[in-house]
């Protein structure tokens, strides 16, 4: 089992809204294909994956320092994984996070 396929979950306002619809977003290896991503998600989180959509996010340009040197941030691959209805991944449980902060 290759643990280098899934790098990290992507937590944003949009991904949290999609999590309520059964779609979960991950940062994945650029070399990973959809079949590898599906297999890794199913094994790691014990869920059933219906579909995987991938896209390459191009790195943005930022300017740093007194001389305003322009640096390109790295690009990465993003995978949106749709699960069977009723299943979820606990990393994306927003209701749990909100109840602990109150």
The end-to-end distance, rounded to whole angstroms, is 39 Å
**Total helix count?**
3
What is the 3D shape?
elongated
The overall pLDDT, averaged over residues, is 88
The CATH homologous superfamily is called RRM (RNA recognition motif) domain
Query: Largest beta sheet: what is the strand line-up?
Result: 1-2-6-3
Summarize the structure.
With about 100 residues, the chain is of the alpha+beta class. It has one domain: RRM (RNA recognition motif) domain (Alpha-Beta Plaits).
What does this structure look like?
- This protein is of the alpha+beta class.
- It has one domain (6-87): Alpha-Beta Plaits, CATH 3.30.70.330.
- It has helices spanning 13-19, 34-45, 94-101; strands spanning 6-9, 23-28, 49-57, 61-64, 69-72, 76-83.
- The strands form two sheets. A four-stranded antiparallel beta sheet has the order 1-2-6-3. Strands 4-5 form a two-stranded antiparallel sheet.
- Strand 4 (61-64) and strand 5 form a beta hairpin.
- The protein is elongated, with a radius of gyration of 16 Å.
- The N and C termini lie far apart (39 Å).
- The model is unreliable at 96-102 (pLDDT under 50).
């Amino acid at each position: 089992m290759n643990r280098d396929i899934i790098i990290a979950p992507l937590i944003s306002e949009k991904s949290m809204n999609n999590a309520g619809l059964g779609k979960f977003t991950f940062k994945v290896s650029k070399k990973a294909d959809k079949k590898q991503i599906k297999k890794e998600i199913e094994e790691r989180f014990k869920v059933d994956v219906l579909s995987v959509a991938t896209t390459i996010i191009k790195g943005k340009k930022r300017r740093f320092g007194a001389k305003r040197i322009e640096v390109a941030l790295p690009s990465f691959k993003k995978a949106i994984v749709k699960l069977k209805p009723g299943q979820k991944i606990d990393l994306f449980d927003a209701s749990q996070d909100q109840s602990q902060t109150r």
